[in-house]
Design goal:
Length: 167
């Protein structure tokens, strides 16, 4: 049940790939889960992620493990972007200024968007910061990871590397 629910929610995030079968779900999702840039503009077209492995990381400025995870996410982006990985940081701060201040101190090269309505996080039942979802090229959630400890990074890297090597 949870696997089905998560799969449907990923479709709703419009991070999955448009097909005629999912067009209705995507239209409904646009009102309930609208990811934006930090300055409130609609996020870039995520349809370009079709066929890529996506590492979607929910974070907040007040989260100490998020600081540690950002250097790992930057490394992943640098090492595996050309192999088809797309890292997306989804901010959940109440105040955008807090996120901007955090990013000024912890610059990133990967994509940053905001879930201002918190509907995406609510739909995916994000309970801890950070929480990451690893999505394969077909749009299936293959791994959910809560929190971040540096000693876990090699296991995560191996899992992500395996997914980017799959056809």
């Amino acid at each position: 049940m949870k696997k089905i629910k998560l799969s449907l929610l990923i479709i709703s995030l419009s991070l999955l790939f448009t097909t005629n079968l999912f067009a209705e779900h995507l239209q409904q999702a646009s009102s309930s889960c609208a990811l934006t840039t930090l300055d409130g503009k609609p996020a870039y077209d995520l349809q370009e992620l079709k066929g890529k492995v996506v590492y979607m990381d929910f974070w907040a400025s007040w989260c100490p493990p998020c600081v540690k995870s950002f250097s790992f996410l930057n490394q992943l982006d640098h090492e595996l972007k050309d192999k088809g990985l797309h890292v997306i940081g989804i901010n959940l701060d109440e105040k955008v200024a807090d996120a901007q201040e955090f990013l000024a101190k912890n610059p990133v090269d990967f994509s940053i968007v905001a879930d201002l309505s918190k509907q995406c996080a609510k739909g995916l039942e994000v309970m801890a910061m950070p929480t990451s979802y690893l999505i394969d090229r077909k749009g299936n959630i293959r791994h959910i990871h809560q929190g971040f400890r540096p000693d876990e990074s090699e296991k995560l890297r191996a899992l992500i590397t395996q997914l980017v090597m799959e056809p």
